[in-house]
Design brief:
mainly alpha; Na+/H+ antiporter like fold; 1% strand; potassium:proton antiporter activity; ion transport; membrane
C-alpha cells in the first residue's frame, strides 16, 4: 500500500510539473521537477527515503538510454568517433583525478581514494540531463551528435573508475593494469551481452511471426522487456549494463523496415507508449534528484561539524574545475585538429563552449556515489553532499549558460498554408450542400473544419491577441445574456426556449479560456449557482424537478424554434455593431473573423437545422461526411506539395495529422452517452 501511495504521489507531481511548465514556460521543466522534489523531501522524515541505486539504474536509466540509442542517428554519431572516444576516456579520467585532488585538498580529513570516488561519480556527462536541455535549445547537429555519443557510452568508464577508486579505498590496493583490464572487460562484456540479447529478441520476434502467433501487445512487451532483461543479465555477469542496453537499443533499431499493417500498428503504439514512459522516467529522475538533494544537504548544513561557508565554496570550486578541465581538454583537441587540417581555431569557439557547458551532471552521479557501502556512507556523509551539490550547480550552470550559446527552440507558428488548405476543404464541402437533402451531418463536418481554422488562427497570434480573443468572447457572452434576460422579461421567448438558450450560453461560458484568477472566480460563481439551486429546490419542494418531469411542457414546439431564432438574430445585430465599434481597440483581423463566424451561423437559420446545429449539441453521426473531408484534405495537401507551396516535410506532418484525426473518427467504441441522453429526453 505504501508503494501505491508513492506511485500516486509521483504521478501527481509529474502532472503538476507539466502544468506549471505550460503556465510558466520560462521555468524549465527539469527545474520545476527538482524544486518539487526538494519540497517533497522537506516533508519526508530523515532516513525515510533512500535511493536504491541498482533499481534506479535498471528501471529508469537503462530504459531511457535504450530509447535514446534506439532513436539515435548512429551513422552521424560515428562520424565524430575520435572526439567521442576522447571525451569518454581521457577527459573523464583527468576530471576524476582533478576533482578528487581538489576535494582532498579542501577536506584533508577525507581519504584520497574516497575523493577520487567523488571525481569518478562527477566525471561522466549525464545523457538524461543533456536530453532535457536539448529539448529547450537548438544545438548544431554535430554538437548534438557528439554529446549523444558521449552520453550513451561514458557511464561505463565513469562507473569503472568509481569501482577502482572504491576498491583502493576499502582495500588499500590499486593496480593500473587491473583497472585497465577491468574497464576493457566491462566494455567488451557489455557489448557482447547487448548483442546477444538483441539477437535473441530478434529471433523470438521472427519465430512468432513465422508461426503467426504475434500481435501488437506481444510486440510491445518484447520491446519494453528488452532493456530490463539486458541490464539484468549484464549486471549478473558483472559487465557494464549501460553499454549493454545502449548496444541492444542500437541493434533493435538497426533492421530493414518492412511495410506491413502489423509493423505500422506496432510502430504507432510503440511511439505513443515510449513517449509516455520516457516522460515519466525523465520526470522521476529530476524529482528523485530534488528529493536526494534535500535529504543529503539538510543534515550536513545543520551539523556543527562542518563549516557551511567552506561547504558552499567547495561545491562552487569543484564545479568550476569541472568545467575548466572539460574546456581545456576540448580546446586541446580542437587546437590539434585545426592545426592538422590547417583550419582556423576561432571558427570552433562556439562548439567548444557548447560542448563544455553541455557536460552537465544528473541523478546518475548521485546514484553512483550511493554505490559505496552503507557503513562508509554514514561515516563520510560529506561525499554525498559534495556530489549532490556539484550535480545541482552544474545543471543550473548549463541552464544559465546555454541560452547565450544556442538558440532557444520555438514552435513554428506559420500556419498560413495549413489554414489555406482547410479553407479550400471547407469551400468544397459547402459546395456539396447544394442538392443535399440531409444537410445536418455535412454542416457538422463544416463546423469541425471551421473550429480547426479558428484554433490555427489563434495559435498564429501572440499571447496578447489570444487574450483579446477571450475578452471578445466574454463580451459576446454578456450581450447574449442581457438579450436573453430582456426577451424573457418582455415575453418574447417562452420558458422552454429560455432554458434551451440558457444551456447554450452555459456551454459557451465553459469554452472561454480565462486567466487563473478569472477561472477561479468562474468556478466560485458556478458553485454559488449550484448552492442557490439546491436551496431553491428545498424551499419549493422540488419545483424545478417537477417541471422538468412534465414532458409536454419541456418539449420544444415550432413557436419555440422561431423565438430562439429571432432572439439569435436580434443579439447578432447588437454583437456585430459592438464589434465594429471596437476595431480601433482590438486587432481588426480578430474582430472580422469573429463577425464572419457569427454571420455564417446566422445564415443557416432558414435551413431548419439552426437550433440543433448551433444551440443544441447534436450526436456526431456524420462519419461519412468527415471521411469525405479527410479525403479532400489529403487531395489538397498533395496539390500544394506538387506546386511547391509547402515542403515535403510539412506535407508529411499535415498527412500525419489527417491520419490521427481519421483514426480517432473511425473508433467504433466512441462514447456517445451524453448525446444519447439528450436525444432520449427530447423524444420523450
Amino acid at each position: 500500500m505504501e508503494l501505491l501511495i508513492y506511485l500516486i504521489l509521483f504521478l501527481t507531481v509529474l502532472i503538476i510539473s507539466s502544468t506549471v511548465n505550460k503556465l510558466l514556460p520560462f521555468l524549465p521543466l527539469p527545474l520545476v521537477q527538482i524544486l518539487l522534489g526538494v519540497l517533497i523531501g522537506l516533508f519526508l522524515p530523515n532516513g525515510e527515503f533512500h535511493l536504491n541505486t541498482e533499481l534506479f539504474l535498471a528501471l529508469v536509466i537503462g530504459p531511457l538510454l535504450f530509447r535514446e540509442a534506439e532513436e539515435a542517428d548512429i551513422t552521424a554519431i560515428l562520424k565524430h568517433w575520435r572526439i567521442i572516444i576522447y571525451l569518454i576516456f581521457p577527459v573523464i579520467f583527468l576530471s576524476t583525478l582533478s576533482l578528487g585532488g581538489l576535494a582532498h585538498f579542501l577536506w584533508d580529513s577525507l581519504p584520497l581514494a574516497a575523493c577520487l570516488a567523488v571525481g569518478a561519480a562527477l566525471g561522466p556527462t549525464d545523457l538524461v540531463a543533456f536530453a532535457s536541455l536539448s529539448e529547450r535549445f537548438t544545438f548544431p547537429k554535430r554538437v548534438s551528435n557528439i554529446l549523444k555519443g558521449e552520453g550513451l557510452l561514458n557511464d561505463a568508464s565513469g562507473l569503472v573508475a568509481f569501482q577502482v577508486a572504491l576498491t583502493a579505498w576499502t582495500t588499500g590496493i590499486f593496480s593500473l593494469g587491473q583497472a585497465g583490464s577491468s574497464l576493457a572487460f566491462s566494455i567488451v562484456g557489455g557489448f557482447a551481452v547487448g548483442v546477444v540479447t538483441a539477437m535473441f529478441n530478434r529471433l523470438l520476434h521472427t519465430f512468432l511471426l513465422s508461426v503467426r502467433a504475434t500481435d501488437i501487445a506481444s510486440e510491445l512487451l518484447l520491446e519494453l522487456s528488452l532493456p530490463l532483461m539486458t541490464f539484468f543479465i549484464a549486471e549478473e555477469v558483472h559487465v557494464s549494463g549501460i553499454i549493454a542496453v545502449v548496444v541492444a537499443g542500437i541493434l533493435k533499431a538497426s533492421r530493414f523496415k518492412k511495410i506491413t499493417l502489423l509493423e505500422a500498428q506496432v510502430d504507432t503504439v510503440t511511439d505513443t507508449v515510449w513517449h509516455t514512459v520516457t516522460f515519466m522516467l525523465n520526470g522521476s529522475v529530476f524529482v528523485l534528484l530534488g528529493i536526494e538533494l534535500e535529504m543529503i544537504a539538510e543534515p550536513i548544513l545543520r551539523s556543527p561539524l562542518y563549516n557551511n561557508l567552506l561547504l558552499v565554496a567547495s561545491i562552487f570550486l569543484l564545479t568550476l574545475i569541472l568545467f575548466v578541465i572539460r574546456f581545456l581538454m576540448i580546446y586541446g583537441f580542437y587546437a590539434l585538429r585545426t592545426k592538422r587540417l590547417k583550419k582556423k581555431l576561432h571558427k570552433y569557439t562556439k562548439d567548444m563552449f557548447l560542448l563544455t557547458f553541455s557536460g552537465v551532471k544528473g541523478t546518475v552521479s548521485i546514484a553512483t556515489i550511493l554505490l559505496i557501502p552503507t557503513r562508509l556512507e554514514q561515516e563520510y556523509p560529506l561525499l554525498l553532499f559534495l556530489v549532490a551539490g556539484v550535480t545541482l550547480v552544474s545543471f543550473l550552470t548549463g541552464l544559465l549558460a546555454l541560452p547565450h550559446l544556442s538558440e532557444e527552440q520555438e514552435e513554428n507558428k506559420d500556419y498560413l498554408m495549413h489554414i489555406a488548405i482547410l479553407n479550400e476543404v471547407t469551400m468544397e464541402l459547402e459546395r456539396e450542400l447544394e442538392g443535399n437533402k440531409n444537410k445536418l451531418p455535412l454542416y457538422a463536418a463544416i463546423d469541425n473544419y471551421h473550429g480547426r481554422i479558428e484554433n490555427l488562427i489563434l495559435n498564429q497570434e501572440n499571447k496578447d491577441a489570444q487574450e483579446d480573443w477571450e475578452a471578445l468572447k466574454l463580451l459576446i457572452l454578456s450581450i447574449e445574456n442581457d438579450g436573453l434576460e430582456q426577451a424573457y422579461e418582455e415575453g418574447k421567448i417562452g420558458e422552454r426556449g429560455y432554458r434551451v438558450y440558457q444551456r447554450y450560453l452555459r456551454n459557451m461560458e465553459q469554452g472561454i479560456n480565462r486567466k487563473i484568477a478569472s477561472r477561479l472566480t468562474y468556478y466560485f460563481l458556478v458553485s454559488f449557482r449550484l448552492v442557490r439551486f439546491l436551496v431553491h429546490e428545498l424551499l419549493t419542494f422540488g419545483g424545478t424537478i417537477r417541471r422538468l418531469n412534465d414532458k409536454e411542457k419541456q418539449r420544444l414546439r415550432a413557436l419555440d424554434y422561431d423565438q430562439i431564432a429571432e432572439l439569435y438574430l436580434a443579439n447578432t445585430e447588437i454583437i456585430i455593431e459592438s464589434l465594429e465599434n471596437l476595431k480601433g481597440v482590438y486587432k481588426s483581423s480578430l474582430i472580422s473573423f469573429m463577425q464572419d463566424s457569427r454571420l455564417r451561423e446566422t445564415a443557416i437559420i432558414g435551413s431548419g437545422a439552426f437550433v440543433e446545429r448551433v444551440i443544441n449539441r447534436i450526436k456526431p453521426t456524420n462519419i461519412d461526411e468527415m471521411l469525405r473531408g479527410y479525403y479532400l484534405e489529403r487531395k489538397v495537401i498533395f496539390e500544394y506539395e506538387e506546386h511547391k507551396l509547402i515542403t515535403a516535410k510539412y506535407a508529411k506532418k499535415l498527412r500525419q495529422n489527417v491520419n490521427n484525426l481519421e483514426n480517432y473518427s473511425l473508433k467504433e467504441a466512441a462514447n456517445t452517452l451524453p448525446y444519447d441522453m439528450v436525444e432520449l429526453v427530447r423524444r420523450k
